[in-house]
Structures are given as C-alpha cells and as structure tokens.
Amino acid sequence: MDSENGKCPHLAAVLADPTESTALLNRYKTAVRWNAHRSQEVVYPAKRRKIAPPECGLCGIALSRPYACLHCPFAGCWHDKHVKLHLQDTGHDFCTDVKTGSVFCVECDDFIYDSTLSRIHSLVVLAAEERVTNFHVAKRGREPFTPWVPNSQEVAALQRSVPFPCQGRRGLLNLGQTCFMNVILQSFIANPLLRNYYLSDKHNSKMCKIKDCTSCEMDKLYSEVHSENTAAYGPIDLLAKTWRVSSELSGYAQQDAHEFFITALNQIHSTSRGSTSLQCICIIHSTFAGLLQSDVKCERCGKVADKTDPMLDISLELKGETGNEQSLTLASCLRRFTHPEKLGPNEYSCEKCGKASHASKRLSIRKLPPVLSFQFKRFEHNSADKSAARKIEAPVRFPASLNMAPYTTLVMHKQEQLKEGGSAAMSLVPDRALGPEALYEYDLFAVVCHEGGIDNGHYTCFARSQDEWYRYDDDKVTHSTLSACLNSQAYMCFYVKKHIDYKPYVTPSYVVTREQEAVKEKEREREREAARQKEVDDAILGVL
Amino acid sequence: MAPAHKDGRSAALYPPLRRRMIENGDWDRICARLARELNESGWIDRFKDRSKEMARAAEGNGGLSVEALLAELMPQAEADIPMGVRQEIIGVIRKLLERQIDFT
C-alpha cells in the first residue's frame, strides 16, 4: 500500500468526487445485496427453480464466487487472474469479492480497508437477513435496523465530552492464590456486553446505596482498567466482598475458577437493577442466561414430555469419552451433550401410558444467550475420598467461530422430522423459518486455561481486543496470537453472538420507568399544590 | 496437484457440470459442508493465524503482497486438508455426479 496511514489513495480520490463516489458505492451495494439474496435462495432451494449463475467475462465459466468490477458490469474468476486482467486492461481500479465484500485495488495490488465500505457491507447484509427472519411468537417481522443519528442535544453533549479509548488492558495483581479470580475478571473485562453496561454508567458506584454491592465493584473495575494507569491493579475490595458473601470461596487456598464465575454472576445479579427471581432482566441474565430443554421420550408409547430450565453456562463432560481422547473437540462434546441418553427402567414413569417404562432423555438449547460460556469438566472430585480427585489433561480443540444451530431445540426437532419423513436436511439450518444462519453464529473472545495439578495449578487466560489476542498471567499482559490461544489447554471458553437479537418495537424498560416516574412526579406536584391551596383556603376561613 | 478438470475428457465435461451444480445450489451446499468440517478440524483457524502472522512479520520489510501470501500458503493449505474430510467430500461429489453422468 502506498500511503502512510494505510489507506488506499485511489479510493480516497474516488470518494472525494460526488458523482464517482455514488456510482462506485451503488455498484458495491448491488454486488453485496445480490450475494446476500442469492445465498438465501441457495440454502433453501425450491424444487423447480434454477438460478442462472453469472459467467466470467473472460472465460465464460459459471462463477461460484464472483469478483465484481466496481466500474462496469464485468464479473470474473479470481484464481485464474481474469478479474485482475480486466482491471489492468480497462484501467478500472477496484473489484469486490461478493462473498465477503472485500475490495481489491489493482493500483495498490492489495485488498484495501475502508470504513465506509465496511459499514455499507454490514448494513446491506443485515437488511437482507432481517427480511428473511421470522419470529415464532409475535407474528411480525423484525424491526429494521436504523443507524443512530444524534439529535442536537446529543451532538452538544458529545462536543462537550472528552473521548477516551474503550479498549482497556491491565494486569491484575495476585493477592495470594487469586489467579482463579483474576482470569474470570479478565473474561468479564473482555466481555463486550458487560463492558458496555458499566462504561455507559448503568450502575454508578458513587451513587449506589446497596450494602456490599458487587455490581459497584465491577463498575470500579471497569473504571480502573480504562483509566490512564497501566500498572497492575489489585481487586482487593472485590475479593473481600466475595469472602463476606460466600464463605466457601474465602481463605487463601486455590479455588476453582468456574465456581468463582458462577458465584460472581449471582452476586452481580442480586445487586443489579432489574433483578428478579423469575425471568430476570438484570445485566447478568440479559447477557448470560439461556434456556436448556430436556425432552424425555417414553419408549413404550412415544410420548415426549419436555421441560425447560434456565442456564447461565454449559458444562461439558470429558471423562469416559469412548475412542480417541486426542480428537476431543467442542463440537464433539456438544454432540455428546445433546445425544439421547437412555434412562434406567425405573427412572421414569410416563404420564400418557402410566407405566414405569424405558425412556430416553435428550438435552437441547431452547434459547441461546448473547454470551455463551463453556466449561470443560476437567476436575473430577470424589467426595468420599479427597485424595482421589484427578484432572483430565486431554486437550479439547475449539474454534474461533462457532455455529450453534445443530444443538438448538428447534433445529434438532426439524432434523428429526425430516429424518422420519425420509429426507435429509441439506443445510445446517434445515428450514427457512429457523434462519438465517447468522442468528446462531458466535465469536470466541476469552479462554481460561489451567496448568498443573488439581491442588497446585495456575490459571492464566487469553482475551481478545477486537482482532488481537493477549495473554493474561496475573499482572503480566503480553501480546499473543490466535494460534497460541487455540493451542492452549482450555478449561473455560467464552463466545459472544455475532449479531445481537432484539425484540421488535419494544421501548426499553428504563425508558418506560423514567416516563412512569415523570407522570408520578407530576401527580405528586399537583397534590402538593392542592394541599397548599387548601391551607390558604383554611387560613382565609379562619380569619372570617 | 493440477486441477483434474484441466485435462482430457474431463475438460469438456467440467464447465456444464459445474454450471449445473451451481444452478442447483449443490455447489454452495457442498462448499458450506466442507467449510464446517474444516472449521471443526481447526484448519480455518490455523490458516487465518498463519496468514495474519506472515503479514505481520513482513511489515518491517515492505509488507507482503497478496500473490506472495497465496503462493506460500496455498500449497500448505491443500496439503493440510485432513484425509477423512477430503475423502468424505469427494464421496459426496462422486455420489452427486453418478446420478447425473452417463458413464457409458
């Protein structure tokens, strides 16, 4: 690339000219939109419908992954360099890979990055996905995304404020075998939903009146991590509060990071706004809570009884994996998790046929949370014999990108239906009504690792800041790579949804509360005024 | 390994077969399945990391062109496809083609 700041000067020149800019961006939008629609069509084929593919302008071959010129209607092959030849021959500068929206500049001889193009790509793809998403409960379409445009008050507020980066990376001091706590706190810091909540001042620790408030400690933690101080931070108050609230975690012995994770989630939940015992909408439940469904099928009469339970994370068994322990993957663990399990002869009595019968139980995920946390059960505790506890060292391979469709209730049920009907699902999401696939996609953002034995081990973690991976070893923070992270021995993995889903046309609860408060305040003011008037009237009557 | 469709008898069959597979959506579905298998085996992440770190390492001395990156990594990428995945996908393609081509 020519220019110093990494931007393509040829694109800058085009974008600076209104006519050229409009023409280029329109071609870009068309190419991206074409691909978005086509990929929907392809996944769910209508039997008689054929979609004529574009042909390479040079060799005539049908294109499966067209590269479209952004100056003229030409489309061509990448691998045989046909599109590049076209650009060189015609003097056109740019072409795009319709599948990814990546743009290639023949002058720079490189793929280029531009925020305008990225944004257009995201908006066009999202709009195409919105149109094909069906809600099952409220029979209405998805609310179309509209970018936020600040009103005049907001513009003024933005101009008055001091911007600072919302990328914080800070080591955490080990306060005496507290690496188990530090790794979980780093996973919270790297969690975009939690981070945004606290950075947008949703729980102000300076104004909170709750005693022993863990949510306040989180607020302070985010402030510290995003401050200008880069020296390691010691979360002393948070540790002290945790000891006060959960005696099992107190003391200087090594604790289990997963136990701390669940305890911390419950503590933050109980001290956060919106916290209720059923269908809680506090920040913790909004972020981590999903629903697990268990279907129990009576082998005798075929009746299936289902029940759902809330879950904050998924714990996956490692022990007793038949076959090669070297080939453990997150996907194989999830397949095992959702595989039908035979219940013993007297473990279940069917409602319909009334007999104690053979039954099989199957787990699936009814509702996917925005942040999906996995724990690999490496530590086997034997409550009778403490010395018999052991750690399963076998590494588990996990991906940077995960699609959870095959493990969800609706997809699994549909696949069963298709199998019984004799057809096989050709796509990952077997029915258009259950799509698009993007709804099931997640990106890895943090990994907690454990080295050593059960009682004398050490926790470290990897966490991602945008596209870069960092390794956190208590107070030591080092720049790392995706590969180092994926080759580590994971104990817990954290994934965040690529696209957050929203209920359509809903006013946020805090806005509703604010409006209700305003109405109540007006009512109170009216009552005060009436009372004052009454006093005056009484005083006058008293005089007469 | 040169692409099979470039030589002899296959050269004439390849373009219409390819067109039909793309029209039916079979091409994209098989690609998607291949991508899933490669993701589960760690192949996608491995090459994402390799290409990124190669580009990063070359930043000091003038950078790395797309061509150079592809020239270096494509052979490794092809060789690294797990045998099981390769055979499975070839099997799927073969079954599809058997239904469509008259081999007499």
TrEMBL record, chain A:
Cite a single GO MF annotation.
zinc ion binding
| Pfam families found in the cross-reference section | UCH, zf-UBP
Catalytically driven reaction(s): Thiol-dependent hydrolysis of ester, thioester, amide, peptide and isopeptide bonds formed by the C-terminal Gly of ubiquitin (a 76-residue protein attached to proteins as an intracellular targeting signal)
Q: Where in this chain does the record put each UBP-type domain? A: 33-131
Q: Which keywords does UniProt give here?
A: Hydrolase, Metal-binding, Protease, Thiol protease, Ubl conjugation pathway, Zinc, Zinc-finger
Q: Domain USP spans what residues?
A: 170-498
Q: EC no.?
A: 3.4.19.12
Q: Which SUPFAM superfamilies match?
A: Cysteine proteinases, RING/U-box
GO cellular component annotations, sorted alphabetically? cytosol; nucleus
Q: What is a biological process (GO) this protein takes part in?
A: protein deubiquitination
Q: What InterPro entries does the entry give?
A: Papain-like_cys_pep_sf, Peptidase_C19, Peptidase_C19_UCH, USP, USP_CS, Znf_RING/FYVE/PHD, Znf_UBP
- Top EC class, one word: hydrolase
Stated family: Belongs to the peptidase C19 family.
Protein name as catalogued: Ubiquitin carboxyl-terminal hydrolase
From TrEMBL, chain B:
Q: Which UniProt keywords apply?
A: Activator, Chromatin regulator, Cytoplasm, mRNA transport, Nucleus, Protein transport, Transcription, Transcription regulation, Translocation, Transport
Question: Does the record bear Isomerase in its keywords?
Answer: no
**Location in or out of the cell:** Nucleus, Nucleoplasm; Cytoplasm, P-body
Its function, per the record, reads: Involved in mRNA export coupled transcription activation by association with both the TREX-2 and the SAGA complexes. At the promoters, SAGA is required for recruitment of the basal transcription machinery. It influences RNA polymerase II transcriptional activity through different activities such as TBP interaction and promoter selectivity, interaction with transcription activators, and chromatin modification through histone acetylation and deubiquitination.
An example Gene Ontology CC term for this record: DUBm complex
What is the organism field in this record? Lentinus brumalis
Question: How does it associate, per the subunit comment?
Answer: Component of the nuclear pore complex (NPC)-associated TREX-2 complex (transcription and export complex 2), composed of at least SUS1, SAC3, THP1, SEM1, and CDC31. TREX-2 contains 2 SUS1 chains. The TREX-2 complex interacts with the nucleoporin NUP1. Component of the 1.8 MDa SAGA transcription coactivator-HAT complex. SAGA is built of 5 distinct domains with specialized functions. Within the SAGA complex, SUS1, SGF11, SGF73 and UBP8 form an additional subcomplex of SAGA called the DUB module (deubiquitination module). Interacts directly with THP1, SAC3, SGF11, and with the RNA polymerase II.
Question: What GO molecular functions are on record for this protein?
Answer: transcription coactivator activity
Family, as annotated: Belongs to the ENY2 family.
Gene Ontology BP, a term: mRNA export from nucleus
Q: What is this protein called?
A: Transcription and mRNA export factor SUS1
Kindly indicate whether the keyword Iron-sulfur belongs to this entry: no
Q: Which InterPro entries match?
A: TF_ENY2, TF_EnY2_sf
